[in-house]
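User: Teach me something about this protein's shape.
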Amino acid sequence: MILKGLQLSLERRADGKTNWDDLTERHPADDTGAGPGEPSGGGEPAALAVGGIDIQDAVIRWEDEASNARHSLSDVDIRMGQIAPGVPFDIDLAASFAASEPAVQGRFTVNGKASLDLAARQYALAGLRAALKASGEGVPGGAVDAGVMADLALDLAQGTVSVKGLSLKAYEVTVTGALEGSGLPDAAVLRGPVVLEGLNPRQLLDRLKVSAPRTANPERLKRAALKGQLTLTPTRIALDTLVATLDDSKLSGRLEVADLARQAVRFDLSIDTLDVNSYLPPAPANGSAAGAPAAAPANAKGTEASSLDSLRSLDADGRIQVGKLKAAGMQAADIDVGIKAAGGRLTVSPKGVIYDGRLDSVVTVDTRPTPPALAISGGLDGVQIGPLLRDLTAKPERLTGRARIDFKLKGTGLDAPALKQTLAGTTTLNVRDGAVKGVNIAQYLREAQAALTGQKADSASGPAQTDFSDLNATIVLGGGVARNDDLAMRSPLLRVGGEGTADLVRERIDYRISAAVVGTLTGQGGKSLDQVRGVTVPVRVGGSFAEPTYALDTEALLAGAVKGRLEQEKAVVKEKVEAVREKAKDQLKEELKKGLGGLFR
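Assistant: First, the predicted structure itself:
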């Protein structure tokens, strides 16, 4: 069959009628009236034999007045060799195309060696080579140069399909694999290995004209690879025995979309090492105000609403394990995180080793109410709190020691300003063998001694810290304020209590520390503290979170000292009165003895 210069125009008018309706209308005269046992002319052909096909320079146009769409195929060339049952024949196909909605234009080619057996319902295409070059606003990235290679075999009688030697290349990304399918056509399942190597995510995003995220480490998102066993059905897709890499991280496990319609994700993944910090946006440039809040994007509310919508529709259940983790400036190891999301409720259960201690907690986000509700519970046990605070705040730590922290908190909203105002609950803190940095309570005791004796206080000596053997405190949060009324800190020399508040919204401190000497005559710094033994020394803590201030409360000290002296003097007077009373009793006894003795002489 030879056909040259075909011009075919297909049209659909605004009323829905087409220009070929009259060719497909059925008339009574067309009925064959075939009787029983006579061929009716219907059904599939049992065989097909064609000496060859040669179609050149064909043009096919499609216009739809209803949608104002215009599509066309031009320079259509189709060449096939002799077609006979079970006999392979060459196939070459090429065409240029154009579409109006969206605007796309390009050319594709297909060639290979085909065979078909209609009676046996078996079809094959060996050495498939297909190529596509396209451009236009309807093409991701504006342009694509893609190609496919494979050997295909389809057996509809057995319901099987085979795709061997698969190689798909587009945007300089290559995927290879081999798939075997069964259950066609109603319960199709495809299985087989797939491999993706040499992927540069940044380069891919650039080709797609998508802005890559800015990262603290600019070398991130430049190396990726993946391989695994793919299972594909009309309703689910899964990757088993998954092995992947992203930059310096290696990932393994299983990933599945259990229900494509609901986008239900199931996973069990292990990562050897992950540096989240290096994927975060870079720090502000030099000269930026320290601690200055970043300007909110113009579309921040829209982005937040979109994120909440995503959380509400999220259906996920799985587990992620990380051998070594860096995140939010902190380091952790042997992390095991359970994640479950359904019905607008997300639960994350992180566990692991953190700063020589153990983390065990549960975080729940409920997006059903507006604003969403947040709940956090759990604790840290045996952590070195100094390095933890230093890495978390990126500032020198103000507390050291081995700590246990238990917390149970609830709040509404997911951003920091909202949580500062709404977070409520209790946190308990126990720290052993540590120090409070930035304040030397022993120095304030020396200043108190100087105030009481009218002498000049010695200059500070030793580090600006207060050592302790144990520290306990309960912190109650509510209404944007953190309150503590039961600070108890002990050392061989000191007993320290405290009470006060911290305004989480304004980041201001209002706290009073009460210290008393209970130990030997020399305190931290080696100076005698005899004069303040038994006197409660008050220290006022104020200022901001970033720059706290410490000052001796001299007025309260003197008032306490006067009261203490009065109590001491009262005790001395009472002791003297008791002594005189006892002496008088003894004298009276002696006089009575003398008087009674004279009566019996």
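Now, about its shape. The chain has a mean pLDDT of 84. Residues 554-599 form the longest helix (46 residues). If you'd like, I can walk through any region in more detail.
User: That's plenty for now, thanks!
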